[in-house]
């Protein structure tokens, strides 16, 4: 008894391309929805590392600015106390 095997290469290729296109569409939709150029390390590992380093630098500078403002406030309070002491004397 002879067995006939039929294979539709065009359909298999179309199915493979559909999977690839669906994956690309998913990535594009994720980028559009988030608004970020880099959503994960797979998008751009070096760019993500640079971005994170810059993010931490900005966070540190913001903290330094707040610390400086707190220091200015302390000096202003001390100045007010000294002025009050001077006026009492």
Detailed description of the structure:
With 89 residues, the protein is mainly α. It has one domain. It is 79% helix and 0% strand. It has two helices and no strands. The protein has helices at residues 9-34, 45-88. The model has no long low-confidence stretch (mean pLDDT 90).
Q: Topology of this protein?
A:
Elements: H1 9-34, H2 45-88
Count every helix, treating DSSP H or I runs of 4 or more residues as helices.
2
Poorly predicted runs: none
Taken from the alpha-carbon principal axes, the silhouette is rod-shaped
Content of β-strand:
under 5%
Task: State the oligomer.
Answer: single chain
Question: What number of structural domains do the residues give?
Answer: 1
Order of helices and strands: HH
């Amino acid at each position: 008894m002879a067995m006939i095997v039929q294979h539709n290469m065009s359909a298999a290729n179309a199915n493979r391309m559909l999977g690839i296109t669906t994956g690309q569409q998913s990535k594009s939709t994720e980028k559009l929805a988030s608004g970020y150029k880099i959503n994960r390390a797979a998008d751009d590992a070096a760019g993500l590392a640079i971005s994170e380093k810059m993010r931490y630098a900005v966070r540190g500078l913001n903290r330094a600015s707040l610390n400086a403002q707190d220091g200015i406030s302390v000096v202003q309070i001390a100045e007010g106390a000294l002025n009050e002491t001077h006026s009492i004397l």
